[in-house]
């Protein structure tokens, strides 16, 4: 199976451009969440969007709970698809977990991306000695339990909490719908892999020029995490944007576009 | 030629060295060491042990590149070996950047399709390898041995797992288990069995002779030892006999024992199982005792029941007899009263005739008057007796109709007032009921009121009042007749409505009283489905309260 099929890769924007932007989506969403942001760049750049295996319209047969219990497997997929499209020196824009998988891909295959943008990404969600991740293990255990006992009830609580922006309920509804479209066992595995991950050590192996975009209010990723990334990624800049919730690219796209334009 | 010898020696080395890495306690360490030996002997740059977890998940489980352990990869681009070989050779493989192998590596790919393990071993050289027959020999020997050792390792590991599971079950079941292995001449015994047999050995494998000695001692303490021994003898005669539900009873405990032969091609033995059923056994026994008690109590109850039944029959018989007597009595009263009625009427008639035919003088007049009074009294008594028996025998038919109660009472009181006037007694009617009509038998009601009002007059002194008060409450009309007479004692009230009961009060002007009036009243009130009650206190007058349903008025 080739990567185009496997990851439902979409190529849009300026096909002749030498400059490529690769957008990676986060948990519970898919490539359609980039629709507002990519508009601002489609004239000048070649734009690659894709669905992570297990999400959106990726090939169902490509998913395995074993293989995708490691974020490196997602990173390997990014390497494979960029190789297949012959992409080099591109810019990788990763939301949430894709910020990390993009970084892992870059560590393994240095020539693919020259710049990285992390949007509300986190190398570790659990609090630790001297580290604020935002969650305690007991919070997450509770979350896993609810997820296992009644997935759809969990979705209806999780979606509005993580989306924020209560004045725009359609956003939480969209997120709830894309969560509901996931196979519950896949959602459970993926959610657990992400929340239990710890990639703080990998930050040191990473040396690409980076922009860290962070909503000022996000229940999944506190501002301290963005500051930690900024401190531990050598060549990085922190850009706080005035946005509510974990998904600024859909709830405050203009803010995200403004931030991206300062960097790309 | 040199090359060939070199590889063969390496193969021999591998066979020798493989023993030094046996570590069946630690599968991980064993597999890793095995790989490292292979790496040394083949002088490859990298080696990977890949386990296929599912169709698409190939996990690098061991490698000299430790950082790759735990990551996923794929080997599908490496061709499987031809049928006569166990490995395939690949020169300068082209792989993507996501792959664990470096670009242009020379690879020996050893697929593993064993029952217990699916995956592959991959050896990589950074520069091309000089292939020769010796290489082939080396890999064939090494891979065959490697697979054997992996299998052995897996078997030992599985056996250990099985032993753990077996022990967990064997020692945690509540039953005592003893397996006597006749082939190996040893016996396995679990903790519970040691406990009941009183064996204080930490070993779980003991000599069958020791076990049977302990079992004999155990058996000797049984209450039903003879019974047990009899069955045991049968068992020893027939080695293939199976026994279940065999009870071994002790003073404070009871075991359900089963003993079954275990005979397979290679093994011959016997499994003994002792299940402690003391709790349920003794509970059952208590239940049985209780049942006995219940049965005795039940028998006693049945006897009493029979007695009551026979007494009931007797009572029924006596009742019937009484009924007969009563009927006889009623018949007698009817006859006597009828026969008495006419003599009294004749006496009265005669007295009147005597008065008419000649003027009476002095005492004559007094005597004649007395005759008239006495005969009238007698006649009244006879009438009352006839009435009461007629009512009791329901010979009088009730004829109910709607009456205007207020008007009815006014007329009735007017009639009674003429008698009352003789004692200057005033009868007052106070009608406060919301109902004006009553569905009743007017003759019955008249007799009731006559009786009660004339009684009130009879037992009141001159110049007193009688109050007739009519009220109502839900579906009821209440008529009360209150006098200012002598009242009644508690004893009077108890016997008020009984026949021929004369009460403490006396008529105030020598009026006659048969003692039947109130009995008649009571019977008539009952005929009208009403009730009569009496409130009175000695010296403070009497009130009779009549209650009739209005529901019958449609």
Summary, kept brief:
The complex is a heterodimer of chains A (about 260) and B (about 550). Helix content of chain A is about 40%, strand content about 15%.
**CATH C-level of the largest domain in chain B:** Alpha Beta
Q: Which pair of chains has the greatest number of interface residues, and how are they split between the two chains?
A: A-B, 19 and 12 residues
**Can you tell me the CATH topology of the largest domain in chain B?**
Beta-Lactamase
Summed over residues and divided by their number, the pLDDT of chain A gives a mean of 94
What is the number of helices of chain B?
Answer: 12
Tell me the CATH superfamily of chain A: Alpha/Beta hydrolase fold, catalytic domain
Helix content of chain A: 40-55%
- Biggest sheet features of chain B: 6 strands, antiparallel
Q: Largest sheet of chain A at a glance?
A: 7 strands, mixed
> So what's the oligomer here?
heterodimer
Average residue pLDDT of chain B: 86
Radius of gyration of chain A: 17 Å
Tell me the name of the CATH homologous superfamily of the largest domain in chain B. GAF domain
Side-by-side strand order of the widest sheet of chain B = 3-2-1-6-5-4
Q: Count of DSSP E strands of chain A? A: 7
**Rg over C-alpha atoms of chain B, rounded to the nearest angstrom:** 60 Å
The CATH class of chain A, by name, is Alpha Beta
Poorly predicted residue ranges of chain A: none
Strand order of the largest sheet of chain A: 1-3-2-4-5-6-7
Q: Any key phrases for this structure?
A:
heterodimer, A: 264 residues, alpha/beta, Rossmann fold, 7-stranded mixed beta sheet, 12 helices, 7 strands, 42% helix, 17% strand, B: 554 residues, alpha+beta, Beta-Lactamase, Helix Hairpins, 4 domains, 6-stranded antiparallel beta sheet, 19 strands, disordered N terminus
Helix and strand topology:
The complex is a heterodimer of chains A (264) and B (554).
Chain A: H1 3-6, E1 10-13, E2 20-24, H2 35-39, E3 46-49, H3 71-84, E4 90-95, H4 97-108, E5 113-119, H5 137-149, H6 151-163, H7 169-180, H8 184-195, H9 200-203, E6 209-217, H10 223-232, E7 236-244, H11 248-251, H12 253-261
Helix pairs in contact in A: 3-4, 5-6, 5-8, 6-7
Chain B: H1 2-20, H2 27-42, E1 46-54, E2 57-63, E3 72-73, E4 88-93, E5 105-113, E6 118-125, H3 133-172, E7 176-181, E8 186-189, H4 191-197, E9 205-206, H5 208-220, H6 225-237, E10 243-249, E11 254-263, E12 268-276, H7 278-357, H8 363-392, E13 401-404, H9 405-421, E14 426-431, E15 437-440, H10 442-458, E16 465-473, E17 476-483, H11 490-495, H12 517-527, E18 531-536, E19 542-549
Parallel strand pairs in B: 14-16
Antiparallel strand pairs in B: 1-2, 1-6, 2-3, 4-5, 5-6, 7-8, 7-12, 8-9, 10-11, 11-12, 13-15, 16-17, 17-19, 18-19
Helix pairs in contact in B: 1-2, 1-3, 7-8, 8-12, 9-10, 10-12
